[in-house]
């Protein structure tokens, strides 16, 4: 059969996509930049085979298979359709969802997640990334549900928050005076960030406004502290609640959508650093190295080995514990550069992505009709804790 390429890939075309509990992994290749072409010509370190396979063509060829391999011809709109749209559908169905962008600095994480955000949501610029498109689709779905389910008196409430993790400290990007926020765990609320601002929004435009403001605050913080934003992780969260009535019972549904732009995955150099600087250098990638370890141990767990999963060893993994082997539908977009000079970093990203593919999540609908579901969820959480204590 002729290889199918990602341009023709439709989410609904592939029956395996989201049908299992595994994390979905998408590779996105960016085009060679003009400076890369002028230095090394059109040579590349990878060769795409089909819409699901890619070969690394370094000193030894290695072939990798993923849920989707999107080459440089795949548009921002297409990326939204295969990755963003199903996330919103999941959330509307009451499932928590999470999207991570992984990859070395310059591989296209921010282009994928945000892209051109200044263009507004009404008329997308072609470079507008997944996040603003998610907002627009989310609110169009809400509008449709409201119209279709008038008898049930369905009501929606949306909130958003935006934070940054740098040097193992959490900064509220919607209220930059709030620094070093703490992560807490509560039987009812689950894992949450104490005192993090959650802003109520009524439209895609409102939500985009928060995103733009937060991104600007992130830039200011990076400049003031004299550091590159490529060394911090950012997490934008949409919280969607709905309430309706059916046969005299009030139903309540709840979902969180986390959109995560990770720090550059390249190794950080700490040579020559001392004191605070050294601590900072070792902390910078703590969240990322713990993420790697968490994934490694989850893979071993799925192979029947009993291992402690060190979620609490970093802010990122503690905060996003549910998205890694828990109650969430999760997509990882691993961004790679095809450039010859990035060959080893690209291989390392492909290997990371391949490991991540083994993570099994267990997403459940967050719905409460008579109180039963919530009680069961709490019992499940309690049991899970007891199981992990046994390990
Ligand atoms: P990262 O956030 O991973 O450091 P960026 O998203 O900032 O990387 O991308 C680096 C550069 O490459 C930017 O100029 C961006 O516009 C460009 N770029 C990345 N991915 C693509 C793509 N798929 N198509 C076109 N340009 C891209
Ligand atoms: Mg970036």
* Ligand names: adenosine-5'-diphosphate, magnesium ion
Low-confidence stretches: none
Biggest sheet character: 10 strands, mixed
- Helical fraction equals 25-40%
**Overall form:** globular
Please give the alpha-carbon distance between the first and last residues: 47 Å
| Structural class category | alpha/beta
Report strand %: 15-25%
User: How much is the radius of gyration in Å?
Assistant: 21 Å
What's the helix-strand series?
EHEEEEHEHHEEEEEHEEHHHEHEH
| Count of extended strands | 15
Mean pLDDT: 86
> How many H/I helices?
10
Family: Belongs to the TRAFAC class myosin-kinesin ATPase superfamily. Kinesin family. KIN-12 subfamily.
GO molecular function, one term: ATP binding
Keywords: ATP-binding, Coiled coil, Microtubule, Motor protein, Nucleotide-binding
Protein name: Kinesin-like protein
In short:
With 391 residues, this protein is of the alpha/beta class.
């Amino acid at each position: 059969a002729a290889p199918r390429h990602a341009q023709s890939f439709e989410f609904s075309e592939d029956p395996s996509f989201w049908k299992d509990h595994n994390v979905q992994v998408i590779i996105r290749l960016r085009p060679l930049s003009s400076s890369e072409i002028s230095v090394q010509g059109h040579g590349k370190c990878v060769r795409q085979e089909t819409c699901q396979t890619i070969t690394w063509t370094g000193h030894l060829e290695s072939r990798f298979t993923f849920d989707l391999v999107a080459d440089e011809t795949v548009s921002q709109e297409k990326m939204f359709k295969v990755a963003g749209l199903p996330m919103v559908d999941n959330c509307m169905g009451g499932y928590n969802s999470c999207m991570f962008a992984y990859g070395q600095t310059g591989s296209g994480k921010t282009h994928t997640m945000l892209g051109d955000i200044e263009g507004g949501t009404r008329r997308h610029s072609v470079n507008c990334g997944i996040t603003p498109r998610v907002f627009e689709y989310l609110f169009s779905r809400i509008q449709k549900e409201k119209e279709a389910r008038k008898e049930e008196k369905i009501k929606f409430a949306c909130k958003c928050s935006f934070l940054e993790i740098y040097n193992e400290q959490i900064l509220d990007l919607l209220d930059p005076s709030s620094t070093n926020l703490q992560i807490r765990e509560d039987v009812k609320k689950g894992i949450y960030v104490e005192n993090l601002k959650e802003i109520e929004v009524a439209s895609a435009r409102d939500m985009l406004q928060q995103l733009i403001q937060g991104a600007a605050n992130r830039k200011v913080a990076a400049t003031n502290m004299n550091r590159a934003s490529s060394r911090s992780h950012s997490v934008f969260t949409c919280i969607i609640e709905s309430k309706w009535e059916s046969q005299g019972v009030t139903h309540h549904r709840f979902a969180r959508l986390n959109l995560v732009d990770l720090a550059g995955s390249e190794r950080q150099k700490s040579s020559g650093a001392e004191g605070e600087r050294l601590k900072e250098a070792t902390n910078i990638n703590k969240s990322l190295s713990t993420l790697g370890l968490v994934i490694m141990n989850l893979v071993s767990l799925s192979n029947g080995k009993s291992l402690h999963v060190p979620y609490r060893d970093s802010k990122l993994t503690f905060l996003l514990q549910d998205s890694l082997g828990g109650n969430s539908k999760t997509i990882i977009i691993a961004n790679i550069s095809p450039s010859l000079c990035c060959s080893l970093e690209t291989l390392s990203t492909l290997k990371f992505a391949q490991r991540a593919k083994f993570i099994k999540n267990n997403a459940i609908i967050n719905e409460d009709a008579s109180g039963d579901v919530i009680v069961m969820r709490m019992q499940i959480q309690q049991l899970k804790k007891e199981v992990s204590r046994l390990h």
